[in-house]
Amino acid sequence: MMKWLRAHSKQIMVVTVLLAMFSFIGGSALTQILAPSDESEPVMKAFGREYKLGEIRVSQHYTDVLSKIGINWQYDRDQKMTAEIWHLLHEEAVRAGIEVSDQEVDAEVEQLKNTFASKGVDFFDVLRVNFKIMPPVVREALRKHLTIMKNAEHLAASAAPSEGQIRHYVRDTEDKVKIQFVALDAEKFMDANLPLTAEQVQSQFEKYKDTEPTKDTGTIGYKHPRRVKLQYAVADFKKIEPSINVAFEDVKSHWRANKGKYRKVIYETPPPQTTTGPTSQPEAKPVPKSVEETIAEARPRVESELRKKNAQRIAEQTMAKIAMTLQKPWLDVKVDKDTGYKSAPDEVKSPTYFHDIVEKTARDAGITLDIKETALITVEAIEENDDLKYALLTGEGTAGLKLSEYAFRVPIFHKNEPGAEATTTCLQLFQSPDMPLVYSQFAQYFSRGMTPPVDKLVIFRVVEASEAQMPASVDEVRPLVEKDLRIEAAMKTLEPTVRELSASARRIGLKAAVPLFDDLKKKQPELAAIEPPPFARSVSVMSQELRKLLTEGKPTLVAPNVSGLGTSQAFVDACIEMLADGWKAEAAPAAGDKLKLATTRPALTPEPAVRVVALPGMGKWCVVERVGAERVDTDKYATSLHQSGYGRLMGERGAALLTNWFNTPNIEKRTQYERIVRAPAGPASGDHITTEKETPKMLDF
User: Fold this and answer.
1) In terms of C-beta density within 10 A (0-12 exposed, 13-18 middle, 19 or more buried), how is residue 682 classed?
2) What SS3 string covers 390-433?
3) For 520, which DSSP code?
4) Partners of residue 536 on adjacent β-strands
5) Which residues contact 341 (CB under 8 A, 6 or more apart)?
6) What gap in Å lies between CA 681 and CA 36, rounded to an integer?
7) How far apart are CA 2 and CA 682, in angstroms?
8) Widest distance between CA atoms in the chain
9) What's the rounded Cα separation, in Å, for the pair 472 and 127?
10) How far apart (Å, rounded) are the C-alpha atoms in residues 140 and 69?
């Protein structure tokens, strides 16, 4: 035996070293080393040819290099781009004849070197020492990235607007009208007991049953919009505070550690000054002095602060435990590769599942939580719900996601791309978020990296979702139909009064005419002439909404919100029409005691520009007087507005084109992408079968 060991000592040493090496680098490395090379395995088809795994591994290496040097190669913002798609983008650019010079690469490298140098490190040294990446590899990765971007820039350049389009944009966003108006709300004058016939109700229902109501434009409609049914729990810190007991020892300990914080002001009279001679000194006045409060004096304040702090801490712990408990049944459920969602476990579908967990956890914590369930409700209804309207996610990558949006990211409304679960925030029915949502009246500041005060915590789940659909019968929306009919009747009843008010304002001005109609204030006490800030026909949407509208191909200019009325394109258009040279309102017969009284007063010269605007969808009559205008003149257009209008239109159109260009499904379509997937060999044969659901192997650099 010893003779054999001596004869094979070298071979034994080699095996020992290899085993030690494999134990150090791991089993996956052992598998790769022992596995046969599959560089020539086809993984996809595009541009009419097959691509081998080896080609894609090279591209994956370059994308990894780009990530390490801080270059974002994830051009598709909606989902995670793979190295395969990046490879196709590069080949597409090459096929288009795009070339990147050495000078362009040098400029990019120099910029990166300067960035690293500002942090006190050498760019190439960091890559060479930390990642074993050599300069030629970095340059080639940058060249490919620049080739892709250069190809996309040609596309964006085609978005240049014409001179006519710029003028139209500037006119719509910069020509402003200044008005004053009164709005008579027909609902305030509605006869709630007005008899209605069955034929009237049915006719109104049939007319609008397939129209969705819109809050902003006041469109009448009875079609149910998208709705969800929610179960939710709210931890309101203020409601929890009374149940929190604060021990005196805790108060004393906190007071001792923060004495400087608890102070009061006392007034001391300084001692009289010693003087010589008959001169009398004025009486000394008390001087304010800040001193520390005693524990007895500070106790109420300390107790209040500790009670508030402990209420928030217990609420956070309780809600986190609830979220974790609600997630347990989902942990072992696999994600469906086709939908990107997990299938709901049977136990979570119980109507009392959510309620029971929340109630038990709250009881164990010694606090009370509000547990509620809604009917099927819309986005607007959620944003009007006092428990939910300021609730949003604040975790990394989700800051600013409101509950009203999150609740509609369920399978019926939100379609996931296969494998996209990690890059999208969505919920299966009956599934709760893995962390509570915060509720703050200053919620918008979370998305700006700030941490405003939090009032509550909210956990919820969607138990039912319904697409937009027509009501099955008028009975589902009868109260709304009847109300609209009564408002419509009130609109007709009000019209003569509105015409009389308009005629009076045309003689003596709106502000002078409104007080003549003081009887209207019995039904609408707040009735008065309103003078909102000047407004244009259109305003640009908020930046956070812009990309969504661009992606969907929707207009990015909307009607402004007019103070005292809201958003109505019809109202704004009617007001902007009054800017036209020589505009005059159509003559409308009017009579009445108030008009007679107006005619006894001196008429204004020139005659005020006044018109009536009917907004039946909003149930309002408006009387509008134009009092001024802010027009765009030639000089202002040439010196500033032309350039800003060009930049805005160019930016929007370019962003829309690039968003669609880098959209992964669009890339797959224009390159004729087709994945080739091979399943592992079966136990009986070495043959492989094709499947569409398996992801091809990628080397993890």
Assistant:
1) exposed
2) CEECCCCCCCCCEHHHHCCCCCCCCCCCCCCHHHCCCCCCCCCC
3) G
4) 176
5) 335, 411, 416, 421, 426, 428
6) 13
7) 44
8) 134
9) 66
10) 13
Nearest to 142 by CA among 109, 95, 116, 103: 109
Tell me: pLDDT of 41 over 50: yes
Residue 170's identity, in one-letter code, is V
Per-residue model confidence as pLDDT tens digits over 628-665: 999 888 888 888 888 888 888 887 777 777 877 888 88
Least confident of 125-129, 561-565, 669-673: 125-129
Q: What was the pLDDT predicted at 399?
A: 55
Per-residue pLDDT tens digits for 411-464: 998 887 554 444 457 899 999 998 999 988 765 555 555 566 788 999 999 999
Residues 6 or more apart in contact with residue 447 via CB below 8 angstroms: 399, 400, 544
Dihedral of alpha carbons 410, 415, 419, 423, sign: negative
Distance CA 163, CA 178 (A): 27
- DSSP class of residue 251 equals H
Looking at residue 629, the DSSP 8-state letter turns out to be: E
Is 581 exposed, middle or buried (CB count within 10 Å of its CB: 0-12, 13-18, 19+)? Answer: exposed
pTM across the whole model: 0.62
Could you read off the pLDDT of 313-342 as tens digits, one per residue? 999 999 999 999 999 999 989 888 778 889
Q: Cα angle at 28 between 22 and 33, to 5 degrees?
A: 65
In a 13 Å sphere around the CA of 68, the CA atoms on its Cβ side amount to 21
What's the helix, strand, coil split of the chain in %, to 5?
A: 50, 15, 40
The whole-number pLDDT of residue 12 equals 45
